[in-house]
Amino acid sequence: MATQDLLQLMESKMSGFSKGQKLIADYIMHNYDKAAFMTASKLGHIAGVSESTVVRFATELGFDGYPGLQKALGELIRNRLTAVQRINVTSDQIGTTDVLDRVLTMDIDKIRKTLEETSREDFKAAVHAFLNAKNIYIVGLRSASMLASFIGFYFNYIFDNVHVINVSGASEMFEQIFRMDENDLLFAISFPRYSQRTIKAIKYAKTKNAKVIALTDSKLSPLSPDADITLIARSDMASFVDSLVAPLSLVNALLVAVGMEKKAEISEVFTNLEHIWEEYDVYQKAEGKTQNAESI
Q1: Who has greater pLDDT, 33 or 134?
Q2: What are phi and psi of 24, to 5 degrees?
Q3: Spatial distance between the Cα atoms of 85 and 87, rounded to a whole number of angstroms
Q4: What's the rounded Cα separation, in Å, for the pair 63 and 72?
């Protein structure tokens, strides 16, 4: 079942539901942001029905049990929650005490789940695709822009064919990628709430027969259907702040893996750069070296 159709499914079946099932459906349709984080027992208590009624309701919708319904609700809210709703959900999940411990623990869990769920075959295929692309285009907008800038910054040390797409409008984005062809690669990054312009960039890349690698949070992400390779990183903190710890860790892994394949070239690049950094005082000199800043 497509999770985006879940609310419409409940509405269409409303007339055939029992009284208890109607209470559950009505609550979920108006409070899906909260229901996604409730146990069957808690949902039943709030809706005024038994836990077994909640389980039967999930079965009536076509799920094997309540965990299936809860997972579908989780997928549903990824792209539906407004910033205000995310703030409210965060308050319910985390509370106001020991926020530091709770947030860091949740981020650690996201990295662990990303490690468990990432396909090694897809990861290796992505590394191979980067190494063989004529041009690498990187699109990451809004909060994902920091990930795009980060991988672009280091890829520019490794490749001479990297284009990080910086846009303020849709037309400007297409102006930067219109020369794309079948030998090129688009690396598209987006997490809930998904960027429409990033999705459009992927669709355009496919019309040019370019290879597409998507970095997103789920195989059900709208980036995934048109991507040749989808890399999954958990980013499901329900907050106005997007948690990008796990995606950044996966980006780090990509950089290291690509760098290891081009170790000789990178060593030469950084040998030359060290001379430049030294000559132009790019970095603070190590202790023991003299530096007279006033004479520069």
Answers
A1: 134
A2: -65, -50
A3: 5
A4: 9
